Amino acid sequence: MSPDPETVLARVRDLALAMPEADERLSHGSPGFFITKGKFFAYFWHNHHSDGETIAIVKTSGRDEQAMLIESDPAFYYSPPYMGPSGWVAMRLDGEDVDWDRVGDRIAYSWELVAPRRLLEAGGR
Question: How far apart are CA 30 and CA 64, in angstroms?
């Protein structure tokens, strides 16, 4: 668990809100990031239900991609409670050597999965 979740949240927030028409609101007590008038593409959880994790949760293209990510790096990726069965993947952000470029790429890809065609055709991210 991150000793300073606000610093980690600030980095996730910067990455998520850099996406076109991205906004933030609480979802079940935790920050969630969505496209204005659209769908959520990322969430931030810190010690959710006392699990001891500081994570960002993002969409994948489906269960196959989710499984591939988890298999490729199980220390970083895992299937989060509630959302995992729908293909979302959690990224552990409580280590000292978090690859923020990788986190940013996953957040951006998740945004692309829910972005309306008009945003994608306008150049996306």
Answer: 27
Q: How far apart are CA 110 and CA 21, in angstroms?
A: 14
The answer to whether 24 touches 17, Cβ cutoff 8 Å, is: yes
The pLDDT of 84-97, averaged and rounded, is 93
Q: Is 22 helix (H, G, I), strand (E, B) or coil?
A: strand
Q: Are 60 and 87 in contact (CB under 8 A)?
A: yes
The residue-averaged pLDDT of 83-97 equals 93
CATH of 5-116, one of 3.90.1150.30, 3.50.50.60, 3.30.70.360, 3.40.50.720: 3.90.1150.30
Tell me the whole-structure pTM to 2 decimals.
Answer: 0.93
pLDDT tens digit string along 38-75?
A: 899 999 999 988 888 999 999 999 999 999 999 999 99
Reference 83, options 39, 115, 125; nearest CA is: 39
